[in-house]
Amino acid sequence: MLERLFHLSSHGSTVRVEVLGGVTTFFTTAYIIVVNPAILSFAGLPRGPATVATVLAAVFGTLLMGLYANRPIAVAPYMGENAFIAFGLGAMGIAWPQALGAVFLSGVLFLVITVAGVRTWLAAAVPPSLRHSFAAGIGLFMALIGLYETGIVASFVTGMPAAALTGEGGLLRAPDVPLKIGNLRDPAVLLAMGGFLLIAILMHRRVRGAILLGMGATAVCGVLLGLAEAPRAVFALPFTGEWTLEPVALKLDVLGVLRWSMLPALLTLFLMGFLDTLGTLVGVGAAGNLLDEHGNFPQVERPMTVDAISCMGSALLGTTTSGAYIESATGIREGARTGLAAVTTAGLFALSLFFLPLLEPLSRMRFAYAPALVAVGLLMLGSIRRIDLDDLTEAVPAFATIAMMVFTYNIANGLTAGLVLHPIVKTLAGRARDVNAGSLVLAGVCGVYYVVGLPH
Fold it and tell me: What burial class does residue 340 get, using C-beta atoms within 10 Å of its C-beta: 0-12 exposed, 13-18 middle, 19+ buried?
């Protein structure tokens, strides 16, 4: 039955490998169970119901990805979009029901252009060098998140520090850099560094489940060293008490979005979702050698359709834009190649509904899961070798993509910058014939993102 559903043999995989990959992907995406509700609480959504909505959105999207698209990719609420809704739209005074309405409408638009074939056409219009820069940039982005989560890298307060005004003689001195090295004497930081080294050594020795084993060993060490709290409870019934879904489910306000003042918010959500999905699919595909000889993601319309439907489902459940998760690369690196891995991940998300009191402290163990993000980021960086750095008309947009993605801490900013620059650089260099119609459309849409959208 599994062979008929997922075509394991034609993908060179086995049930054991797929299940292991699905479990690995779950453990590197499970942090969303805690982090997403925490962020959405700033927008006014109650934590308990938002937690249940987050898990259900992950179950629905990931299961659909496995059964319909037959891809080993997890689907869950995006991190960038939830922050945009909580802090960006919140600062504009937009209530969370309207924000969920905007999420739903962006999903409808995704589905329309996907069914019409426009979305696939636009995805195929992205030049190969940019596709590989997406993978390399997302890899560095993931590594930065991992380094920050472990404490190996720390940040200063944003904006110009007051001390910048108190240089010698009252002169303005150079402000502190935005990032600095963390406290390397902190036991949790040292444990995270050890966890990364363990994962790296296991991967070098080609040990199956290297990332999962490394995370598990690090988590156990953290508990034994007193660096993490032991769970105070193990089991809780979902949809009861603080874990009810009623306060957020079907509370979206679609009509409140249908006005001109909401256009920038809707446009930004649409572009962020489209570009995040595109970049993630290309990044995951490059990490797992899932791209074809032309650098395209085969049958990309299927995972894109899943992304669109998941986005609409998330809004109905009471959470933000869902889409393909770059952390799926961890499971793919363990050998996952089919939708059976995604079904496994979805099953574990569903099971987690009964163990939310147990998972909450586990998901807070940054020293355990963050080293895995650094390791995957390192592996994904290999895509940079496929960028034609000798051709500046290819290298400049690729560099802008990577730099803007990492240094602005936003994947969408990097993707839009590269897509806008590519036709401009090609045309100014006298190579306008290398620019196709799809590239021009993408550049125009991305230009609108900067002109009337809400880049952050």
Answer: buried
